[in-house]
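Appendix B. Extra example for self-study. Work through it before the problem class; the solution is given directly after the inputs so you can check yourself.
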Amino acid sequence: MIATPMRFTRNSEIYGEDEAAEYLYQVVSGAVRTYKILEDGRRQIGAFYLPGDIFGFEAEESHISSAEAICETHLLMVKRTAVIFRASHERELARQLWDAMALELRRFQAHSMLLISSAEDRVIAFLLDISRRTTKSAAIDLPMSRQDVADYLGLTIETVSRTFTQLEQNGAIALPTTRRVELRKDTLSNRFAQNFG
Amino acid sequence: MIATPMRFTRNSEIYGEDEAAEYLYQVVSGAVRTYKILEDGRRQIGAFYLPGDIFGFEAEESHISSAEAICETHLLMVKRTAVIFRASHERELARQLWDAMALELRRFQAHSMLLISSAEDRVIAFLLDISRRTTKSAAIDLPMSRQDVADYLGLTIETVSRTFTQLEQNGAIALPTTRRVELRKDTLSNRFAQNFG
DNA sequence: CGTCCAGTTGACCATGTTCAATACTGGTGG
DNA sequence: CCACCAGTATTGAACATGGTCAACTGGACG
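Solution. Structure tokens for the complete assembly:
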């Protein structure tokens, strides 16, 4: 299957809401956010995609979100129709597609669970999720700004900032720089009442 | 494809979280809720399914939510593996499956948008959604309790109840009985700041 | 050294939660 | 037919969490 490599710069648009959904994408390096702008101007980030993640199939004919590169990002693109066509012959590919969409559903469902928790639980769940998806080590480098985190978690930037500070004071995390977070997982898990699959 | 009809009584379990995901289901009559119980005992309802809706494919191998009949409910069940197998031969079926999952994703995404709005907007969006999915007339009969609505919207039952009362006092809805709601759509839309697809 | 932008902090405020009391509704049995 | 009961819904008052608005900090870069 022909995959086209593409390069996007910080904050550049990958696709827009309501654009025809022509491609599926896989992140090679960098990070991507998908989002919608509400009428009142707020932005809701639906998901972050990190190296290895596949995105773009939140769509029938046209995309329901916009997608932007958070930082310098390399992607692979394949034609959506080509994938679906090939999947109609190859059981294995069909199953992979199915699983990928199921994973996507899982993520959105987990996100819904997040959004009904306290600010602290949201931030902790976010950090653990990013940590699990990027590195097995205890430190993570966030590619996204506090504003991105806030729009993802349905909080304000101030509340996110305060929560980071609080977690640091509790010894649950360390913040060598604003974008680098060292997790003390045992402490974090203790503070973490929720059941996020 | 062999579809088995099944009957479920009020509050009976259709499948449990972590059960093997053997079937896909279509609602013939009645109503279904899918939900997860959080560690702290709260229940998050992920979705309601109404006549015509297909559910059960929020799954790779096992379900990620439990499903219950809200009231007396008739379903059709088909083996998941049978559907996927047939989809690997039939392009049209594959496309239908794809679209159905995309719709499911859309719903979860819309739900995330809901959960970051005010209580009033959540309730209005909920009512408009149910209305759109059931009847073109201005009156709807809610199969679910206030507690169900609260757990779906991430609010308390008290807030839901207060919001219903408020909307009635504003003339945006009428409540002949607690489960029957007459929508004044123009008034509702005015009060409704959000951009829910 | 000054500017700019992202992030942090503080004080006050609004929205929704909590806890508790009260009302309604539908079904059952006298 | 009515009285009673249990489950469901509504209302009220005090409270807590996160939002808002505004001031301040700190680091990167010219």
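Self-check: The longest strand of chain B covers residues 23-29. If your reasoning did not lead you there, revisit section 3.
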